[in-house]
Please model this.
Amino acid sequence: MSSASPLPPGRLEEQLPDHAPLYSPGEAKAESDRCLYCYDAPCVKACPTAIDIPGFIRRIAADNAVGAARRILEANLLGYSCARVCPVEVLCEGACVYHDWKRPPIRIGRLQRYAVETAFDAGRAALPPLRRAPRARVALVGAGPASLACAGTLARAGVEAVLFEKRALPGGLNTTGVAPYKMQAPDSLREVAFVQSLGVRVETGREVGKDPTAEALLRDFDFVFLGMGLGADQHLGLPGEDGAGVCGATALIERMKNDPSLRLGKVGHVVVIGGGNTALDAARELAQLGAAEVTVLYRRGEPEMTGFAHELKSARLEGARLLERTVAVEIVREDGRVRWVRVADAREGKPVPGTERLLPAEFVVLAIGQGKLGWVAQLFPDVAVSADGRVGADPEGRTGNPKVYAGGDCVNGGDLVVTAVAAGQRAARCILERLSAS
Model:
C-alpha cells in the first residue's frame, strides 16, 4: 500500500514525536512470545470489533505478519488506525490477564500496528471478496471511520459504494483531528487508500444537501448511510472570546495536521478549557510544541472528567497542569490581544460569586464539545433527530426511513474510532442481509 500523501511537508504535526513507535521485527517477536493465547480471551471481549487478538499475535510469533494483518482486517477494516488511536489501556490491553499478576499487559495496539503496517509496506493487505450480494448502489455521507468501514464491507460483497465528503481530504477525524503523536494525517490517508483498493469510490468536495441533494441520493442509490460525524467546535459566548488568540480545539488540531502555513511562534501561557480527551490532546500537543505553561481548566473535579486517566497522566508528565472546579467567565484583552482569563471557583459547574481572579494567558483553546449535524439527517424524510441533534438509529443503523442507515459520532454524539467502525460494519451487514432477502 503506497504511503504517498497529497499533504505538503512543513506541517506542525511533523514536529511531534510518535508516542508508540513502530516495533522492529525482533521487538514484535519478543512481545508476541509473551502472549498466553488465552482461551475465551478477555481482550477479544473488550474489543468493539471482536478482533481475534490471540490469533493474530500467534501469527506474528510465527513470523507471519501478513497473515496477522489479514486476520485483523477481516474483523476491522480500519484496524490500522484503531491500533494507533484506540484507548487500548481501557479496552483490549486493559482486559489483559497479566494485570491480575501485576505484570505489564501485552502491547496489543503496537503489535496490531506492526502487523498491518508490515502488510501495507509489502503491498499484501488484499482481502478476499465476501459472498456476492445482488447488484446495488449505496451512497455514504462523510468519509470518516464509520462510512469507510461500511463502504469497505459493502464493496467486498460487490456493492457499489460511493462516499461523499465535503472536505478536500477523506478520513474524517483520523485525518483532521487525531492527536499527531498518535497518528499523522498521511497515515490516515494511507488507510483510506486501502479501503479504496477494495472497490470504494471517494468523492471529495461534495457537500450533501448542496451537491448532491438528499433527493438525488434517494433517487440514484438503493440505500444511503449517514456517517457525517460532528460539526464545528462549540463556543462559550464569554466576553472577549471573539478574535485572535482564541480558537476551537478541533479546528486547531486540524490546522496542525493539514495546514503547513500554521506557525504558533513563541507560545507563552496557554489555557485549554474542557475536561475531555480532545482538551487533553490539545494540551499535550501545545506542551510538546514548547508552550511555556499549559493549564487545563475544568469546571468539575478530576473524577468527573470524561478524558481518560492515562491521557491526563501523560499530559501532566509533559508539563500541563489541571485546574479543577474552576470556570472561565471572561477573556481579558489589551490592545486586542489575549492577556488573561478571568476565572472563578465553580460549584456544580457554575461560578461562585466573589472568587474571581486573573489567570495569565496568551492563547486560549476551547475544547467543550462539537456541534451536531442533525440538520443533514433532516434532509431525508422520516429520519428522526433528537433534541440535541443526534441522528436516531437502532444498533444495526436502521433509521425511520427504510432506505437510510446511520452510525458513528452523528448517532452516538461522539465516541471512539473503533465504535464508529463497529457501527459502520454492522450497518453494512444489515444492508447486505436486506439485499440477500430481496
Q: What stands out?
A: The chain has three domains: 12-122, 137-166+205-231+371-437, 246-366. DSSP finds 16 helices and 14 strands in the chain. The domain at 137-166+205-231+371-437 is CATH 3.50.50.60 (FAD/NAD(P)-binding domain).
